[in-house]
Each structure stands twice: as structure tokens, then as C-alpha cells.
Amino acid sequence: MDPMMVGGGNWVWEAQGAYFGVPLQNFWGWWLTTFTALAIYLILAGGLIKQPVNTTAIPVSWAIYAYAITGISTVWVNFIFDLEGPGMVGLFAMLPWIIAGLVLAKQLEPLPNAN
């Protein structure tokens, strides 16, 4: 997303960064924001969760499909705006995880009853 915003002129820095115009400290900022938000959530929600949630009702593949749709749409938009470099980086960064997730999800599927 960051290279798309820079390419569209929405985000501007005084000095162009190393990653398609995005300064590397920008990624540190995103990491720190995510870490802080997740830490606050875990602290606040820690006292709210009394029993483990039954997650077997939710197929693992849903998370994989959501990740794949997010990745594919971002890569697609990069190519639409002639940002092939960031698009290829996104493709090669996300595709192995999508494939690994699909393979592992297939292995986690319950075996059909032999009855």
C-alpha cells in the first residue's frame, strides 16, 4: 500500500526512501503501531476471556482465503497503477505463504468417516 500512496502523491516525504520511495523508518512505524495496538488489546481483553473459544467451527481456509484476496487485490492495484516493482515484491512475498497455508489446511482437514 505504501508505494501506491507515494506513487499517487498522497504520501510525501522530504527525502525519498529506499523502498520505491518509502523511507525504511516508515515500516518501523507501522510495526510499532501494530505491536502497541495488539499489546493494548491483549492487556484489556486478557481479563475478559474466561473460557477457550471453540474455533473448530471456523474453517482454517477462511483465513487463508482472506489473506489471498487481500494480497491479490493489492498486487492487482499495483499493476493497474504501473507499479510493477512493488506488485512483484508483494506477489513473491505473499504467494509462498498462501501456498503453504493451503497445503497445511488440506492436511488439517478431517478424514471422512469410513462407515
Overall outline = flat
Radius of gyration using CA atoms only = 19 Å
Low-confidence stretches: none
Order of helices and strands: HHHH
Q: Can you tell me the number of structural domains? A: 2
Oligomer designation: single chain
Structural class: mainly alpha
- Report the sheet with the most strands, covering strand number, pairing sense and barrel closure: none
Count of beta strands: 0
Question: Total helix count?
Answer: 4
Proportion in β-strands: under 5%
Kindly state the percentage of residues in helix. 55-70%
Distance between the termini: 50 Å
Q: Averaging pLDDT over every residue, what do you get?
A: 84
Blueprint of the fold:
Elements: H1 2-7, H2 24-45, H3 60-80, H4 84-108
Describe the structure.
The chain has four helices and no strands. It has helices spanning 2-7, 24-45, 60-80, 84-108. It is flat and about 55 Å long. The protein is mostly helical and 115 residues long. Helices cover 64% and strands 0% of the residues. It has two domains: 1-50; 54-115. Helix 3 (60-80) runs antiparallel to helix 4. The mean pLDDT is 84.
Compact overview of the structure:
The protein has 115 residues and is mostly helical. The chain folds into 2 domains: 1-50; 54-115. The protein has helices at residues 2-7, 24-45, 60-80, 84-108.
